[in-house]
Automatic annotation (TrEMBL):
Name the record gives this protein: 6-phosphofructokinase
A Pfam family annotated for this UniProt entry: PFK
Gene name of this polypeptide: PFKM
Source organism (scientific name): Oncorhynchus kisutch (Coho salmon)
Catalytic activity, EC: 2.7.1.11
Keywords of the record: Allosteric enzyme, ATP-binding, Cytoplasm, Glycolysis, Kinase, Magnesium, Metal-binding, Nucleotide-binding, Transferase
GO cellular component assignments: 6-phosphofructokinase complex; membrane
Cofactor(s), by name: Mg(2+)
Similarity comment: family membership: Belongs to the phosphofructokinase type A (PFKA) family. ATP-dependent PFK group I subfamily. Eukaryotic two domain clade "E" sub-subfamily.
Catalytic activity: beta-D-fructose 6-phosphate + ATP = beta-D-fructose 1,6-bisphosphate + ADP + H(+)
A GO biological process held by the record: canonical glycolysis
Length: 774
């Protein structure tokens, strides 16, 4: 990764190309686009470029005039919290015609614009690439027709294109998430949670139709996040006689004590013969065949609006900055690229390769190759589908044991440790149900390690965890206490309750507790069982994982609170707010909240501020502790006569609330993955009629690293842990702090520049399609 120093007004665009940058979107709006607009404008201005808005999408580009306006730093202030797009959006038939593109090219040439940043879907981006491809031809026609001079044509001899995908459908291949998708999921889950309460009261069945066009991502993730009984997605239509299977499923759910049924339907849902499946069709089936009180709801355009989620604000900001960097480095030979999200990295991918794979999905569905369609959507989509099938499409067995465990019933205990956070219950639910499906008996340990020592352990069954996905906090109860002095009693209870493996869900205390149990194996053979730690904490400070369950919900809580505070600050003017977030010594929440709310700075432990260092002697330094009170006093004193200061400590509200869609989905996948791993590990460790696991890889942290869920031995993570400050020594999100500072107009910022990433999975997927066609 190359390093570069970015300073304001370096005039790179002028020195390199003599051009300016323009930014627009077309034709649909998605919540979060304003963050991308703001970041593109400010990054462009920061590097010395002139940045223009093009209002009303391609139509504004064709019409020109007042539709193309110079942007300023202040013109993008106070817009992060706004939905839609402040520069407008419109369909444009004129741009599809050559005469329309000639007018658009003329408008750009007259303003000296040769860099376009386009926010839209695959259609908009394909149009931009066509515009770029025929740019030389358009210039020749304009020169020949006397619309532009030869000198103007020479100054604008090439056009650079960079795209960002803005779509709630998340249907663009090559990126994990598109701008607007997470916000749409927030709107959907809010409605699902509200409907669930009335459905529970009246014992109703609800069918909800969500958007997505020909992509089932919104429907699939919604089904995972709310624990739906059935989901219809276009990529994987139901099998023949699905009507009978659906009715059996709903009856079985009611038979297990459920008072409601939820069915999620993607708007592009179809059967195996490519006939549409509609809400009314499903409603009539359920109500007439089963006699259930049934209602249907089509959510419609409510999914496109509302306040952007924290994720979409950060995603838009990162993509906007990366788009400008891509234009800075572009040459006439550089192909059009699209800025994408790969795990936690903003990367650049060849635009038309991504477009082609996106089209391949539609072709696969049309040809009935539905397994291929799911694979072409990407690894994340396929994992979501596999997890949903496991949890919803399998009838829980009374007893299911593989041959290796034929005379040996397996008990897996689940324990919550540390502070509670949203998403813990989703992980517990998934673990319990997948464990039961695998034929294990699941045990619930109440009140953390104290409960494990005191014998607060009981079986937990399928029906008990119904509805847990959307509940905040910890239904099992949790405490911060470590095993410590209770190790002996814990080992006795592991024997007493015949516990063969342990799932520890929690934050840094869960990590430390896991390490203590592993260390104690030398003295207590009872602890030689497979263990897995699932990171769940608002602080996001567990080594071995880029993200922790609960952090996204807390971040959204902080962001929404900051929005309200900013409204107060804007109304009173000349007021500075100091806001304290949780996280201990980990600056993740503060940094991400700073990005999502547009803060001027985020003070964190990991980044020392040398301006407040006092030299006590020539050899010693006194580091001043940056407490919230200290900063409040500092700004209050310095601001006298200019501004006044207010302090807000957000406190434990960050740990509460219903889980965000991300935390529900993340917790569900982590819980499922942990049990599947333990099942395999138990088979490996079963010797001579008993379980014995003492190898380092038998006790792991399950974490997300870039795009994958990986298991890392607890012992191997010790070297990457700052135990004094309870944080990992390597924290990926520190790379985002320069973006925060650039968008706040700091004088000089050092930042990493993204590598141009190859789209490896495109080659593999395209090969898959070709093989099937042969």
């Amino acid at each position: 990764m190359r390093q570069m120093v970015v300073t304001p007004d370096t005039d790179w665009f002028s020195d390199s190309f003599g051009t300016v940058s323009v930014m627009f979107k077309q034709p649909f709006c998605a919540t979060g686009m304003n963050a991308a607009v703001r970041a593109t404008v400010r990054m462009g201005i920061y590097t010395g470029a002139k940045v223009y808005f093009v209002h009303e999408g391609y139509q504004g580009l064709v019409d020109g005039g007042d539709n193309i306006k110079l942007a300023t730093w202040e013109s993008v202030s106070m817009m992060l919290h706004l939905g839609g797009t402040v520069i407008g959006s419109a369909r444009c038939m004129d741009f599809k015609e050559k005469w329309g593109r000639l007018k658009a090219a003329c408008n750009l040439v007259k303003l000296g614009i040769t860099n376009l940043c386009v926010i839209g879907g695959d259609g908009s981006l394909t149009g931009a690439n066509q515009f770029r491809t025929e740019w030389s031809e358009l210039l020749a026609d304009l020169t020949k027709g006397g619309k532009i001079s030869a000198e103007e044509a020479n100054r604008s001899s090439h056009l650079n294109i960079v795209g960002m995908v803005g779509s709630i459908d998340n249907d663009f291949c090559g990126t994990d998430m598109t701008i607007g998708t997470d916000s749409a999921l927030h709107r959907i889950i809010e409605v699902v949670d509200a409907i669930t309460t009335t459905a529970q009261s009246h014992q109703r069945t609800f069918i909800l139709e969500v958007m997505g066009r020909h992509c089932g991502y919104l429907a699939l993730v919604t089904a995972l996040a709310c624990g739906a009984d059935w989901v219809f997605i276009p990529e994987m239509p139901p099998e023949e006689n699905w009507e009978e299977h659906l009715c059996k499923r709903l009856i079985a759910q009611r038979g297990r004590g459920s008072r409601l049924n939820v069915i999620i339907l993607a708007e592009g849902a179809q059967d195996r013969n490519q006939k549409p499946i509609t809400c009314d069709q499903v409603k009539n089936l359920v109500s007439k065949k089963l006699g259930f009180d049934t209602r249907s709801t089509i959510l419609g355009h409510v999914q496109r609006g509302g306040t952007p989620s924290a994720f979409d604000r950060i995603l838009g900001s990162r993509m906007g900055v990366e788009a400008v960097m891509a234009l800075l480095e572009a040459t006439p030979e550089t192909p059009a690229c699209v800025v994408s999200l790969s795990g936690n990295m903003a990367v650049r991918l060849p635009l038309m390769e991504c477009v082609q794979v996106t089209k391949d999905v539609t072709v696969a569905m049309t040809e009935g190759r539905f397994e291929d369609a799911v694979k072409l959507r990407g690894k994340s989509f396929q994992n979501n589908w596999d997890t949903y099938k496991m949890l919803a499409h399998v009838t829980p067995p009374e007893m299911k044991v593989s041959s290796i465990f034929f005379f040996f019933n397996i008990n897996i205990a689940i324990i919550n440790v540390g502070a509670p956070c949203a998403g813990m219950n989703a992980a517990v639910r998934a673990a319990v149900r997948v464990g039961i499906i695998q034929g294990h008996q699941m045990l619930a340990v109440h009140d953390g390690f104290d409960g494990l020592a005191n014998g607060q352990i009981e079986p937990i069954i399928w029906a008990q965890v119904g509805g847990w996905t959307g509940k905040g906090g910890s239904n099992l109860g949790t405490k911060r206490h470590l095993p410590g002095k209770n190790i002996e009693q814990i080992s006795l209870n592991i024997t007493k309750f015949n516990i063969h493996s342990l799932i520890i869900i929690g934050g840094f205390e869960a990590y430390l507790g896991g390490l203590e149990l592993v260390t104690a194996r030398e003295m207590y053979e009872e602890l030689c069982i497979p263990m897995v730690v699932i990171p769940a904490t608002v602080s996001n400070n567990v080594p071995g994982s880029d993200f922790s369950i609960g952090a996204d919900t807390a971040l959204n809580t902080i962001t929404m609170t900051c929005d309200r505070i900013k409204q107060s600050a804007a109304g009173t003017k000349r007021r500075v707010f100091i806001i304290e977030t949780m996280g201990g010594y980990c600056g993740y929440l503060a940094t991400m909240a700073g990005l999502s709310s547009g803060a001027d700075d985020a003070y964190i432990y990991e980044e020392h501020y040398h301006s407040l260092v006092s030299f006590v002697t020539t050899t010693n330094k006194l580091w001043i502790n940056y407490t919230t009170q200290f900063l409040y006093n500092l700004y209050s004193e310095e601001g006298k006569g200019t501004f006044d200061c207010r302090m807000n400590v957000l406190g434990h509200m960050q740990q509460g609330g219903t889980p965000s869609p991300f935390d529900r989905n993340f917790g569900t996948k982590m819980g499922s993955k942990s049990v599947l791993w333990l099942t395999n590990k138990l088979k490996e460790c079963y010797r001579h009629g008993r379980i014995f696991a003492n190898m380092p890889d038998s006790a792991c942290v399950l974490g997300m690293k870039k795009r994958s869920l990986v298991f890392q031995p607890l012992a191997s993570l010790k070297d990457d842990t700052d135990f004094e400050h309870r944080i990992p020594k390597t924290e990926w999100w520190l790379r985002l702090r320069p973006i925060l500072k650039i968008l706040a107009k700091y004088d000089t910022v050092e930042m990493d520049t993204s590598e141009v990433a190859a789209m490896e999975h495109v080659i593999k997927k395209t090969g898959l399609v070709k093989r099937d066609k042969m």
